[in-house]
Fold each of these.
Amino acid sequence: MAKKDKVLIFDTTLRDGEQAPGASMNQREKIEVAQALERLGVDIIEAGFPVISKGDFNSVHSVAKLARNAAVAGLARSVKNDIDAAAQALKPARHPRIHVFLATSKIHMEHKLRKTQDEIVQIAVDAVKYARKFTDDIEFSPEDASRSEKAFLYRVLEAVIKAGATTVNIPDTVGYAVPEQYGQLIIDIRNNVPNIGKAIISVHCHDDLGLSVANSLSAVKCGARQVECTINGIGERAGNTSMEEVVMALQTRQDYYGVMTGIKTTEICRTSRLVSKHTGFAVAPNKAVVGANAFRHEAGIHQDGVLKEPSTYEIMRPEDVGFTGLGLILGKHSGRAALKSRLKQLGISLNDEQLVKAFERFKDLSDKKKEVFDEDLIAIVEDDVREVKDVWALESLEVTSGTAIQPKVDVCLRSGGKLFTKVSTGDGPVDACYLAIDEITGLKGKLLNYNIQSVTQGKDAQGEVRVCVNFDGDKVTGIGASTDIIEASVKSYLNAVNKKCASIKGKLKISSIDFGLKP
Ligand code: KIV
Ligand code: ZN
C-alpha cells in the first residue's frame, strides 16, 4: 500500500482561539492546554502573539520551555519589534517557528495598511529574511489571502519563499471562502507559484459562514498539507476550523482524502473538555465529535440498529475519540475505592486529600441524585478539587425569589476561619449573590460571560455554570456545579474570585491535579 501523505496539525487554540471574545486563559491554564496538545500529538502549537502583552510573551516562553515534540510558534506582524519579541519568547523552544503575517488583499492594503503592492512585497520579504536570522522554520501568512488578487498573491508567495519562508499559509481571514473556490485557490497556487515545492501549503479558515472545516478539507484534497485549527473551533468572531472535526473527517474518510495526521484521537474528548473548562465556553450538545449527544441515539430504530451492529448508525467509534459516554457507574452504596478506580478510568488521578474531598461531594450528590454518571464525576472533580487554594468558600446560602418579589439573598462566606455574611438584593437571585460576594470580598467583578448547562439529562441533573469575570481589567474564568443552579452560579463566581486572589498574591502555580495531561 502506498504511504499516505501526512497533514500537519497546527493548533492555534492558544493564539487565535484565545482571541475569541471572553475566552481568555491565564498562564497556568495555557500551560495545561499546551500539555494536553502535546499528548494529542499536534505538530505545531501556536502559543501566542508575544509582542501584544507581557502575558502573551510569558505564555509563549513557558510553552516553548515545556514542548518536547511539537514545534512552538509565535505570531508576529511584519515588523522587527514583533519578530524580536517572538524570537525572544521562543528562545527555549526545541523547534521554534516564527509566524509572520501581512495583509495582501486590496481592501486591507488600501484601508488598513495604506501601502502599494510593491511596498507590501518588500515589507514581507524583509520580515521573512529578518525572522530567518533567528530560526530556519518560518511561516508567512498573507492575511486575507482568499480575498486577495490572485496574481499578486502568487507574486508575494514566490517572493517570501525565495526569502526563506518554509510554510506559506493561506488565511481565509474573514470566513468568506466557499469550499470549491478555496480548493481551486490551492490548486492555482500550486500551478502558478514557481518555487511552491520548497514550502508547505497551510490553510487557516474562519467560520463566519460555517464553512471553515469544509474549506480546510477541500484545501487538503487539493494539496494543502498543514491545517490550522483550534480545539472546539474557538477563535476570533465565529471561530476557527475545529481540530476534532477536521482530524476525524480525515481519519474516517481516508478512502476519500488518502492522508493521515499524527493525532492520537483518543485524547480528543478530554482535551475538548479541558479547553471548555478553561475558556468558559460550553460545548454545544449537538457539536460534531465532542458534543454530549455526538454518540447518543434517541430514535428506537437507531437504538435497535446500534445494539445489533454499531456501524449501522455510527461512522466513528466513541472510544476512538475518548468519548466516555453516559455510563451509569456509581450509586449511593459505592465506596471510595470504586470512585477512585472509575476516576482513573476517566484519566483523572487524585492524591489522597483530593480523593477525600471528591468522595464527600460524591456522597452528597448521590443522596440528591439517583444516578451518578461519568459527567457528574468530572464536574465534581473540576468543581471541588481546586487548582488554587480557596481564599473564599461558600458556607451557606439562602435565596428568596419569585415572580412578584424582589430577589433577596443571604450569602455567608468563609475565609481564614472567619465567617462573613451579606444580605443583598438584585435584578435576579444570581445578580444579588454576585453583588453580595463583591461586597464581602471587596473585589469588583464585571460579569462578561455566564453559561449554564446541565451535566446530564433528567430533572435531578447537576447544573454546571461557567463564568468569565473582569476584575480590574483581568479576565478570569470560573466553573461550579451543583444540583441547585444558584449554588452552582455562586461556586463558579467564587472560583473566579479565588483565581483572582491567587494571582494578586502571585501564588498561582501549576495545578496539582493530574488530569492525566502531563507529558
Ligand atoms: O485569520 C488570520 O488571517 C490570522 C492570521 C494571523 C494567520 O489569524
Ligand atoms: Zn485567524
Note: The radius of gyration is 25 Å.
Amino acid sequence: MLNIALFGPPGAGKGTQSKKIIEKYYLSYIATGDLLRQEIAEGSELGVEAKAIIDKGGLVSDDMIVQLIEKHISTDNDSNGILFDGFPRTVVQAYILEGLLLRMGSQLSCMLALDVPNEELIRRMLERSKTSGRADDNLEVIEYRLKEYENKTKPVAEFYRERDKYFPINGIGTVDDIFDRLTTAIDQTLDKQWMNVVLLGPPGSGKGTQGRELAKRHNLVYISTGSLLRKEISNNTEIGDRVKPFMERGEIVPDEIAIRLIEREIQLHPNAKGFIFKGFPRTIVQAYILDGLLMRLNSSVNMVIELKVPTLECFKRLASRGKTDKSRTYDRDPELIVNRLEEYENRTSLVKNYYKKQGIFQKADGTGTTHQVSEALNYMIREGFKTIR
Ligand code: AP5
Ligand code: MG
C-alpha cells in the first residue's frame, strides 16, 4: 500500500494538495479536520465535544481522534492506499497510526511536510475565511492554532525523521509547483519500495522459466524452494536427507523445512529490492509465515500471480521434460506427475483464497509461447510497480 501522511501547519495547503494527490495515486482520504467538522454538522456527541476545542484552535484529544479514525477508515475498497491529512498531529497519534496500519499488514510509506512561513499562513487563512465558513478562520484562533502546531504537532516530524520517512517540501509557490514537488517525493518513495511477487501455478506451468526471467528483468531476487531443496539433496546435507523421500513421492516437504530455507535465502540478500517466490508458499501456514518474514523487513507480498495452464497440458509438458536432460525423477512416472498436479490443486486453493482476500491475487494465461507469457507477466509487474501496495 502507498500510505502518506500530509503534514504541515494550518493553512499550509494540505487540503488543497490532498485532492490532487488522491486522484493521481488512487488513494482513500482521511482528513481528521474534515471528519470533525462533519461530526459537528451532524451534532453527534463527538461533534459537540470537539466543537468547543476546535473553535478555540486547540487540538482535540487523542482518544477522540482514535474513535473518529476507527469509524471512518475502511479497507474494503480497491484504492492503492490511504492519504492522511492533518493526522497524526501528536506523537501519540503517530504511534496509533503505526498500530493501525500494522493491523492492516501495512505501514506508512512517507510523511510529506509542507513548509510555509507563518505570515503567509495567516494571509492564506484570512483570505480563506471570506468563503470557508470555518469558525476557526479568524486571527485570534489562527494564532492559537499555530502555537498548538509548534508545541504539539511539530515533534511528530522528528518521529518520522528518525524513521527515514520525513520529507520536507517547500510549500511556497503555485499549487501546481508544489504538487510537482510532492509527486517527485512520492515517486521516489515508490521507487524505494520493495516488490515481492509470489508466482503460483501447477507443476509444468512454466513458473521456473518465467520466474528466473522476470527476476532478471526487474532486478529482483529469484527464490525457488524446489531448486533450494534439490541443492540440499545434491549436497547431501541433513535437510537434503530429510526431504528426499518427500520429493521422490511428488509430495510437498514439511513446512518448517521450506520456511527455514526461505528465511536463510532472504537473509542472504540484504540489498534486494524484492523477491520472486516460486513454488512458495504452498500451504496456508507458509503464507502466514512468509508475511511474518517480510514484515520483519518492513515489507510484504505485493502481488500474487497464478500461471493458468490446463492440467492435460501440464501433464504433457512434464512428461516431455522427462525425456530431456532437465528431467526430474518424478517427471518420468505418470503416477507421480498426477500426484503432484493433485497436490497442487488441493493445497493451493487455500493459499489463493488467502491472497484473494487481500486483493493482490491475479491470474495469467500460461499457455502461449514462452515469450508471450513473459511479456504478459512483465506487463503485470510493471503495472504493479506503479501502484505498489
Ligand atoms: P484541519 O481542518 O486539519 O485544519 P488545519 O490543519 O488547521 O489546516 P487547514 O485545513 O486550515 O489548512 P490546510 O493545510 O488544509 O490548507 P488549505 O489547503 O485549506 O483541523 C481543524 C481543527 O480540527 C484543528 O485545529 C484541531 O482542533 C482539530 N483536529 C484536526 N485533526 C486533529 C488531530 N489529528 N488531532 C487533534 N485535533 C485535530 O489551504 C489554505 C488556504 O490557502 C486555502 O484558502 C487555499 O486555497 C490557499 N492555498 C493553498 N495552497 C496555496 C498556494 N500554493 N498559494 C496560495 N494559496 C494557497
Ligand atoms: Mg485542511
Note: The longest strand covers residues 110-115.
